[in-house]
Write a structure and sequence with these properties.
Helix content is about 35%, strand content about 15%. It has about 325 residues and is α/β, with parallel strands linked by helices. The protein has one domain (about 5-205, about 270-295): TIM Barrel (Alpha-Beta Barrel), CATH 3.20.20. It has an eight-stranded parallel beta barrel, surrounded by four helices. The chain has a two-stranded antiparallel ribbon with strand order 1-2. Helix 1 (about 30-40) packs parallel to helix 11 (about 285-290), helix 2 crosses helix 3 and helix 3 (about 95-105) runs parallel beside helix 4 (about 125-140). The longest helix has 15 residues, at about 95-105. Bound molecules: NADP nicotinamide-adenine-dinucleotide phosphate.
Length: about 325
């Protein structure tokens, strides 16, 4: 496993990192636990979660499993914004103060390495949010701050505020099929010391090539899981996309790579990306995916990939 510096922070995170979105909502507990241990075994040192995943259940699970593992040996990121009760949501000072304590309590730790705004909150003045995040860092409850899916204008507005903590990370969706942040978010962030930790780098499993166009998804796959498939089916699951993805198989085979390795190597080929946050429902997937770290795709391969996907890429 190779490691990269996260923006202007002191954090060196593994190129492949592990998300915890599915825990309690599709990934069985036993498998989820095995995934964490396997991830650490093979050098993954960065775990991403949120106070909203499984309504706090993902953080509670991590709190249990990570007990007994030396705290300084892994880097832990969580997020705040989405509702956790009918009256709890957003990025007001009161919410941030309340939610960071609730997250730390569930995670059974004194600090997170990275505290991220899961989305932008249009209902709270940005100065209020930034001041509250700064307080969280100054109290030692988070080492660094980040955001997920903010627009270039929102990012710039935060950068323009004086005397507050600076963001070090951005968490956008990014994959062979979803390239929207390339145009503006990536360069703006790079110019300001903000690294990219990207979500759904396998397009939720579509880029593994396991879904055949026109066929019912395999049982035990995310596409068949009603708790988790809503966004996948809406955005990434058209027959056109699945057909194009099948055409990547000979490219992967020629390189002796698995399909997930090809897709992840492509994401890591971006100079802007610090880590690809994968999901996994079984530990074998982590072993397969982690082998993408260190793989470089040459120019001809990149061109062949683009040729195959040209009509289905979202830019
Ligand atoms: N900031 C945000 O708004 C946001 C949004 C979404 C996610 N995230 C973060 O990003 C993390 C990753 O997202 P994601 O789970 O969508 O990422 P992903 O890596 O694109 O998809 C992961 C899923 O693909 C399947 N898969 C993975 N490796 C495979 C392999 N080798 N062979 C076959 N199938 C494989 C598994 O599902 P099945 O086995 O069930 O098919 C797995 O759960 C989340 O856990 C979360 O931490 C953040």
């Amino acid at each position: 496993m190779k490691y990269r510096k996260l923006g202007n922070s002191e954090l060196r995170i593994s190129e492949i990192s592990l998300g915890s979105w599915g825990i309690n909502e599709g990934v069985e507990r036993q498998n989820a636990e095995a995934c964490i241990y396997k991830a650490f075994d093979i050098g993954i040192n960065f775990i991403d979660t949120s106070n909203s995943y499984a309504a706090g259940g993902a953080e509670s699970f991590l709190g249990e499993v990570l007990q007994g593992i030396e705290r300084s040996s892994y880097i832990l990121a969580t997020k705040v914004f989405f509702p956790t009760s009918p009256s709890d949501r957003g990025l007001s000072a009161a919410q941030i103060k309340k939610q960071i304590d609730a997250s730390l309590n569930r995670l059974r730790t004194d600090y997170v390495d990275l505290y991220q705004c899961h989305r932008y909150d249009p209902d709270t003045p940005l100065e209020e949010t930034m001041t509250a995040l700064t307080e969280v860092v100054r109290q030692g409850k988070a080492r660094y701050i980040g955001f997920s899916e903010w627009s270039p204008e929102q990012i710039q507005s935060a950068l323009d505020i004086a005397d507050v903590e600076r963001f070090v990370s951005s968490q956008p969706q990014y994959s062979l099929l979803w390239r929207k942040p390339e145009a503006e978010v990536f360069p703006l962030c790079a110019a300001n010391g903000i690294g990219q930790i990207v979500w759904s780098p396998l397009a939720q499993g579509v880029l593994t090539g396991k879904y055949q166009p026109g066929q019912v998804p395999l049982p035990n796959s995310r596409a068949a899981n009603e708790k988790m498939n809503w966004y996948l089916l809406e955005e990434l699951f058209s027959d056109d996309t699945l057909t194009a993805v099948q055409k990547l198989k000979p490219i992967a085979q020629d390189l002796k790579l698995s399909m997930p390795q090809l897709a992840l190597a492509w994401v890591l080929g971006s100079e802007y990306v610090s880590s690809a946050i994968i999901g996994a429902s079984r530990p074998e997937q982590i072993v397969d995916n982690a082998a993408a770290s260190g793989v470089q795709l040459d120019r001809d391969v990149l061109a062949a990939i683009d040729q195959v996907l040209i009509s289905v890429v979202r830019k």
